[in-house]
Amino acid sequence: MSLLSIIEVPDPILRASSDPVERFDSDLEGLVNDMLETMYAAPGIGLAGVQVAVPRRLLVIDLQDPEEEGGEPVKTPQAFINPEILWSSDERSIYNEGCLSIPDQYAEVERPARIRAKWQDVNGKSHEKEFDGLMATCLQHEVDHLNGVLFIDYLSRLKRDMVLKKVAKLRRAL
Protein backbone atom coordinates (compact mmCIF):
# COMPACT_ATOMS: atom_id res chain seq x y z
CA MET A 1 0.00 0.00 0.00
CA SER A 2 1.10 3.55 -0.59
CA LEU A 3 0.00 7.07 0.21
CA LEU A 4 -1.59 9.01 -2.63
CA SER A 5 -1.49 12.78 -3.17
CA ILE A 6 -4.74 14.52 -2.28
CA ILE A 7 -5.89 17.10 -4.83
CA GLU A 8 -6.84 20.46 -3.32
CA VAL A 9 -8.97 23.40 -4.46
CA PRO A 10 -8.83 25.12 -6.89
CA ASP A 11 -7.68 22.13 -8.99
CA PRO A 12 -10.26 21.75 -11.81
CA ILE A 13 -10.28 17.93 -11.54
CA LEU A 14 -12.39 18.36 -8.40
CA ARG A 15 -15.17 19.81 -10.58
CA ALA A 16 -15.20 16.90 -13.04
CA SER A 17 -17.88 14.20 -13.00
CA SER A 18 -16.38 10.79 -12.35
CA ASP A 19 -16.81 7.84 -14.70
CA PRO A 20 -18.29 4.50 -13.60
CA VAL A 21 -15.99 1.72 -12.45
CA GLU A 22 -16.25 -1.14 -14.92
CA ARG A 23 -13.44 -3.49 -13.90
CA PHE A 24 -13.49 -5.23 -10.54
CA ASP A 25 -9.98 -6.63 -10.24
CA SER A 26 -6.84 -6.57 -8.10
CA ASP A 27 -5.99 -3.07 -9.39
CA LEU A 28 -9.28 -1.76 -8.00
CA GLU A 29 -8.68 -3.51 -4.68
CA GLY A 30 -5.17 -2.03 -4.52
CA LEU A 31 -6.52 1.46 -5.25
CA VAL A 32 -9.15 1.10 -2.51
CA ASN A 33 -6.47 0.02 -0.02
CA ASP A 34 -4.23 2.95 -1.03
CA MET A 35 -7.18 5.34 -0.64
CA LEU A 36 -7.91 3.99 2.84
CA GLU A 37 -4.28 4.37 3.88
CA THR A 38 -4.25 7.92 2.47
CA MET A 39 -7.50 8.78 4.27
CA TYR A 40 -6.23 7.46 7.61
CA ALA A 41 -2.92 9.34 7.25
CA ALA A 42 -4.61 12.67 6.38
CA PRO A 43 -6.54 12.06 8.77
CA GLY A 44 -10.11 11.92 7.47
CA ILE A 45 -13.26 9.82 7.50
CA GLY A 46 -14.03 9.79 3.77
CA LEU A 47 -12.19 10.05 0.46
CA ALA A 48 -13.43 9.95 -3.13
CA GLY A 49 -11.38 8.71 -6.09
CA VAL A 50 -11.38 12.11 -7.76
CA GLN A 51 -9.63 13.55 -4.68
CA VAL A 52 -6.59 11.40 -5.49
CA ALA A 53 -6.74 12.22 -9.24
CA VAL A 54 -8.70 9.07 -10.13
CA PRO A 55 -11.99 10.34 -11.61
CA ARG A 56 -13.86 7.06 -11.15
CA ARG A 57 -17.04 6.50 -9.15
CA LEU A 58 -15.52 5.05 -6.01
CA LEU A 59 -15.10 6.25 -2.46
CA VAL A 60 -14.04 4.99 0.92
CA ILE A 61 -15.45 5.82 4.35
CA ASP A 62 -14.48 4.87 7.88
CA LEU A 63 -16.23 6.67 10.72
CA GLN A 64 -13.94 4.80 13.15
CA ASP A 65 -15.92 3.78 16.19
CA PRO A 66 -14.84 5.61 19.34
CA GLU A 67 -12.04 4.24 21.45
CA GLU A 68 -12.90 1.54 23.93
CA GLU A 69 -11.28 2.00 27.35
CA GLY A 70 -8.28 3.99 26.16
CA GLY A 71 -7.50 1.79 23.16
CA GLU A 72 -7.23 2.71 19.50
CA PRO A 73 -10.38 3.60 17.55
CA VAL A 74 -11.95 0.55 15.93
CA LYS A 75 -11.53 0.79 12.16
CA THR A 76 -14.53 -0.15 10.05
CA PRO A 77 -13.46 0.66 6.47
CA GLN A 78 -16.05 0.57 3.72
CA ALA A 79 -15.65 0.93 -0.05
CA PHE A 80 -18.53 2.17 -2.19
CA ILE A 81 -18.13 1.50 -5.90
CA ASN A 82 -20.56 3.18 -8.34
CA PRO A 83 -22.67 4.54 -5.45
CA GLU A 84 -26.08 6.07 -6.08
CA ILE A 85 -28.39 7.84 -3.66
CA LEU A 86 -31.84 6.43 -4.38
CA TRP A 87 -33.87 8.37 -1.82
CA SER A 88 -33.38 11.11 0.74
CA SER A 89 -35.63 12.15 3.61
CA ASP A 90 -37.42 15.46 3.90
CA GLU A 91 -36.03 15.68 7.42
CA ARG A 92 -32.79 17.69 7.46
CA SER A 93 -29.68 17.66 9.62
CA ILE A 94 -26.77 20.06 9.95
CA TYR A 95 -23.16 18.97 10.34
CA ASN A 96 -19.98 20.96 10.56
CA GLU A 97 -18.29 19.53 7.46
CA GLY A 98 -14.68 19.61 6.40
CA CYS A 99 -12.87 18.20 3.39
CA LEU A 100 -9.38 16.85 2.74
CA SER A 101 -9.38 18.81 -0.55
CA ILE A 102 -10.16 22.04 1.33
CA PRO A 103 -7.69 21.72 4.20
CA ASP A 104 -8.42 23.08 7.66
CA GLN A 105 -11.74 24.66 6.66
CA TYR A 106 -15.11 23.75 8.14
CA ALA A 107 -18.67 24.99 7.72
CA GLU A 108 -22.16 23.94 8.71
CA VAL A 109 -23.95 22.23 5.84
CA GLU A 110 -27.60 21.17 5.80
CA ARG A 111 -28.40 17.85 4.10
CA PRO A 112 -31.10 15.19 4.26
CA ALA A 113 -30.95 13.35 7.60
CA ARG A 114 -31.53 9.91 6.03
CA ILE A 115 -30.74 8.40 2.66
CA ARG A 116 -31.08 5.08 0.86
CA ALA A 117 -28.10 4.20 -1.30
CA LYS A 118 -27.01 1.40 -3.57
CA TRP A 119 -23.44 0.53 -4.50
CA GLN A 120 -21.10 -2.29 -5.36
CA ASP A 121 -18.24 -3.62 -3.26
CA VAL A 122 -14.70 -4.29 -4.56
CA ASN A 123 -15.87 -7.67 -5.87
CA GLY A 124 -18.75 -6.16 -7.85
CA LYS A 125 -21.47 -7.43 -5.49
CA SER A 126 -24.47 -5.06 -5.25
CA HIS A 127 -25.69 -3.65 -1.94
CA GLU A 128 -28.55 -1.37 -0.88
CA LYS A 129 -29.06 0.16 2.56
CA GLU A 130 -30.57 3.10 4.42
CA PHE A 131 -28.21 5.36 6.38
CA ASP A 132 -28.69 8.16 8.89
CA GLY A 133 -26.54 10.37 11.11
CA LEU A 134 -22.91 11.00 10.26
CA MET A 135 -22.81 8.10 7.80
CA ALA A 136 -25.62 9.64 5.73
CA THR A 137 -23.85 13.00 5.74
CA CYS A 138 -20.46 11.53 4.86
CA LEU A 139 -21.84 9.39 2.03
CA GLN A 140 -23.68 12.39 0.55
CA HIS A 141 -20.50 14.50 0.83
CA GLU A 142 -18.39 11.87 -0.96
CA VAL A 143 -20.99 11.16 -3.66
CA ASP A 144 -21.06 14.92 -4.29
CA HIS A 145 -17.33 14.70 -5.05
CA LEU A 146 -18.08 12.11 -7.74
CA ASN A 147 -20.40 14.68 -9.35
CA GLY A 148 -17.94 17.59 -9.14
CA VAL A 149 -19.69 19.19 -6.15
CA LEU A 150 -17.86 20.44 -3.03
CA PHE A 151 -19.34 21.10 0.41
CA ILE A 152 -18.59 24.81 -0.03
CA ASP A 153 -21.12 24.86 -2.90
CA TYR A 154 -23.84 24.66 -0.22
CA LEU A 155 -22.61 27.88 1.39
CA SER A 156 -23.53 31.44 0.51
CA ARG A 157 -21.23 33.05 -2.05
CA LEU A 158 -19.72 35.24 0.69
CA LYS A 159 -18.91 32.29 2.97
CA ARG A 160 -17.57 30.22 0.05
CA ASP A 161 -15.29 33.07 -1.03
CA MET A 162 -14.06 33.48 2.55
CA VAL A 163 -13.17 29.78 2.78
CA LEU A 164 -11.31 29.87 -0.55
CA LYS A 165 -9.38 33.00 0.50
CA LYS A 166 -8.35 31.28 3.75
CA VAL A 167 -7.13 28.23 1.82
CA ALA A 168 -5.10 30.47 -0.54
CA LYS A 169 -3.63 32.36 2.41
CA LEU A 170 -2.64 29.13 4.18
CA ARG A 171 -1.06 27.83 0.96
CA ARG A 172 1.01 31.04 0.60
CA ALA A 173 2.17 30.71 4.21
CA LEU A 174 3.71 27.28 3.52
From TrEMBL:
Source organism per UniProt: Allosphingosinicella indica
Gene: def
EC number(s) from the headed UniProt entry: 3.5.1.88
Described function: Removes the formyl group from the N-terminal Met of newly synthesized proteins. Requires at least a dipeptide for an efficient rate of reaction. N-terminal L-methionine is a prerequisite for activity but the enzyme has broad specificity at other positions.
Residues at the active site: E142
Reaction catalysis annotation: N-terminal N-formyl-L-methionyl-[peptide] + H2O = N-terminal L-methionyl-[peptide] + formate
Keywords: Hydrolase, Iron, Metal-binding, Protein biosynthesis
CDD domains documented for this protein: Pep_deformylase
The protein, known as: Peptide deformylase
This protein's record includes keyword Metal-binding: yes
GO terms under biological process: translation
Cofactor(s) required, per the database record: Fe(2+)
Record lineage: Bacteria, Pseudomonadati, Pseudomonadota, Alphaproteobacteria, Sphingomonadales
An example molecular function term from Gene Ontology annotations: peptide deformylase activity
Domain of life (superkingdom): Bacteria
Leading EC class: hydrolase
